[in-house]
Design goal:
The protein has helices at about 10-25, 40-50, 60, 65-90, 90-120, 135-160. By secondary structure, it is mainly alpha-helical. Among the domains are: about 10-90; about 90-165, Helical scaffold and wing domains of SecA (Orthogonal Bundle), CATH 1.10.3060.10. The longest helix has about 35 residues, at about 90-120.
């Protein structure tokens, strides 16, 4: 779903609304009076999660009803994400959505598997408390999975709303080195030129090894001067 999706912005916005609902349940429960709302705690939580500062408008939020308060927070998160898209560019933000989701899921899933191994090793101890280990294992495993999914959603949103483009310094120009002069190897073609050496050349007919030696000794050349 993540790799195949071209645009995950709607999933991001839907996740943001779910997180906002969870924050409202903690700080401004719907069934309580506005005077009992913890708007300062809500403002701190919204800033920590979405990097959206609503502290200056806390007083005005208190006069709203619950539904109006929720709509205002949803509007602010959507506007903040639209501003992030204008800042980074549509293509870059679409790419970051995929990469952040994949990296977050990969990291948290590894942690979840380690937690499941620990739970499996110690689940037998539940029997000492007069509890069925199998039932306890299913219940705790479900709670761990739900907690992982909630943290995954929050971590993805936190990274996407906080991401910024860092403009680095321009790299210095590349200096090209001068190539050293190439040395031409002389394979002996010019050997002896200009040094006064003379090449000795044989004149006359070549003497065979079995021919009489030219010195007049009567011996064959190979046993005399040709030895």
């Amino acid at each position: 779903m993540i790799l195949g999706g071209e645009d995950l912005s709607e999933e991001v916005k839907a996740g943001a609304e779910e997180v906002l609902d969870a924050l409202l349940d903690v700080h401004c429960p719907k069934e309580t009076y506005a005077e009992e709302w913890d708007l300062k705690g809500l403002a701190d939580a919204v800033y920590a999660q979405f990097s959206i500062d609503i502290k200056d408008s806390v007083a005005g939020l208190k006069d709203m009803g619950f539904e109006a308060l929720r709509e205002e927070l949803v509007r602010k998160t959507h506007e903040a994400y639209a501003a992030k898209e204008r800042e980074l560019g549509r293509d870059l933000l679409r790419y970051l959505e995929k990469m952040v989701m994949l990296r977050t899921i990969d990291t948290l899933w590894k942690d979840h598997l380690l937690g499941m191994d620990s739970l499996r090793e110690g689940i037998g101890l539940r029997g000492y408390g007069q509890k069925d280990p199998l039932i306890e294992y299913k219940r705790e495993a479900f709670d761990m999975f739900a907690a992982m999914m909630d943290r995954c959603e929050r971590d993805v949103l936190e990274h996407l709303f906080r991401v910024q483009v860092v403009k680095g310094e321009q790299p210095p120009p590349v200096q090209t080195r001068r190539r050293p002069p190439q040395l031409k190897l002389n394979r002996g073609e010019d050997a002896g030129v200009g040094n006064g050496d003379k090449t000795v050349r044989r004149t006359g007919e070549k003497v065979g090894r079995n021919d009489p030696c030219p010195c007049g000794s009567g011996k064959k050349y190979k046993k005399c001067h040709g030895a």
